[in-house]
Protein 1
Amino acid sequence: MTEIFISVLLLLGSFFILVAAIGMVRFKDLYGRLHASTKATSFGILLLLIGASMYFGDFQVYVKTLLIILFIYLTAPLAAHSITKSYKPAGKEGDEKDEKADL
Amino acid sequence: MTMDITIPGIVLYIAFAFLMLAMVLTLYRLLKGPGFNDQIAAMDLLSSIIIGIILVYGMQIDNKMYFDISIIIALVSFIGTVAISTFIKKKND
């Protein structure tokens, strides 16, 4: 029973990472590529980590898994935000001249 | 606790195949990306794919040590991504 669960988790996790890579190739814009790569990759790594930690079934491994999941879910949006802030589209002058929306 | 769980080998091979195909597609974007930002995004995705490959490989050879390598790669890839994109942002201004 546990074998089937771990197998499904492994296949789903690697499938989500493959979906992220396909989106990385197929999207036309940097924003679309980041949209594909950030979220799907985090979820795929989450599933792979849960499967691997259930395979080993050790307390130390569970603690390390929790650390990796926390770190990836904290830093993947930060990295995507940093890449987006350094992006300067070719047609525009840059985002200093954009007017701020009155909210 | 229970080390007698045996995953079928075909599952590990299919997971390896998915991850390798994802790696090839990401390398295509890394080589052909129109700008620096696409290449940085591709490198960020590539580090995540390498974390997945290391986890599946650690399950295949039944060694718990490979989780530590995943922690180190997650830390270093975040620092590298933020450093390079901050450098490009400073260069654009």
Protein 2
Amino acid sequence: MSEPTFEEAQRELEGIVQRLESGEASLDEAITLWERGEELYRLCSTKLDSAQGRIEELARRVEAVKP
Amino acid sequence: MKVEAIEYGDRRVFTVSSFNRGIGDWLSRLPTVWVEGEVTELRRQARWQSVFLTLKDPTDGACLGVTMARGQFDALRLELVNGERVHVFGRPELFEARGDFRLRALSIERFGLGDHLAALERLKRKLAAEGLFAPERKRALPRLPRRIGLVTGNDAAAKRDVLTAITSRFPPARILVAETYVQGPRAATAIAEALREICEAPEIEVVVLARGGGSFEDLLPFSDERLVRALAACPVPIVSAVGHEQDTPLSDLVADARASTPTAAARLVVPDLAELTARLERSRTALGRGTRGALDRERRRLDLARDHLRRAPLLLLERRRAALEHSAGRLRALSPRATLERGYAIVRAAGEIVRSSSQLASGTSVDVELGTGGFGARVEETR
């Protein structure tokens, strides 16, 4: 499975939280969900932390004639 | 002049000159008409008799050569530049020496505001009928684009406003800026070109088309059919942030989303970092709480089971005692005591219950048991 995007990870994390809060998960499932949730949280945090703000200019051919 | 053919046996052949003359004669009989198009390749020189230009159809690029007497052209004082839209009044003509077909202009009028408005309305209806503005064509914008494209004019303010709005909301934003002409007759194609180039850059997931406010004419390029079609065909979702709230260039209608201010554009293309972080932390807290909740629930169930287990022997004992009491009750109900209470008596002789007088004889000692107490007696007679 390829790494999920931030949005996918966040959506999955919130789904897991909902499932846990519904109280329907068995103990085994809850532990599995928790582990997956922590993994997704780390993934999201890393994505936010590692995102470097950057503004670039598209290199374009300078047109000689102005209108 | 008469057009004569040379005869080669039964084949009639025209010279080039007579052919051109014939076609020219025929063309000259056509009526004068108005033709609309964009001026390109305008050539005017003081020593030339005529001014030359090419009239181009902006929708499909079809071209028509136009000539006009230089004196007539200069008298119009139009100061035309390439890219401007005009109406040319003239008649078709053949330049016989070269066999070139062209429009001989008698007058040229620049497209006026009213013409622009009417053309815009027509174009809007046409594109709407094609479904270019349909809501179902609108694509969802990514919530966290890896890279944002910004196509903007080379006027500093609009560019700076959008960049500031995006980076203050989401500092880690990565933005690729393409500056282009956003005004004048060449703007539409220049913007479309910038758009195409920026979409080819890697990781671009949304493009903001930005331009500050301006007059109706200033914003016309954003309603140009070529640009509108380029926006519709763009593989990346587009946010149109052109002009102010009251302006509705067609780019706003064809874009996937429109924004009336740079701040609104920023809200559309990037999440609020502070909000995002808070939401993520809330999720994590809830994750811990949810897991603890599941653990606690299991713990409570286990405790309950243990309590049940511990109480089980006691319960068993109690149940047995209750059963015993029940039996005792029934036993008591069956005992003769109740019968004795009603006035009956039990007579025993030598420890045996006496059921028949044949068991007795006169003088036998008997023991009589009553409801309460008893007494000894001697038999007087038997019957």
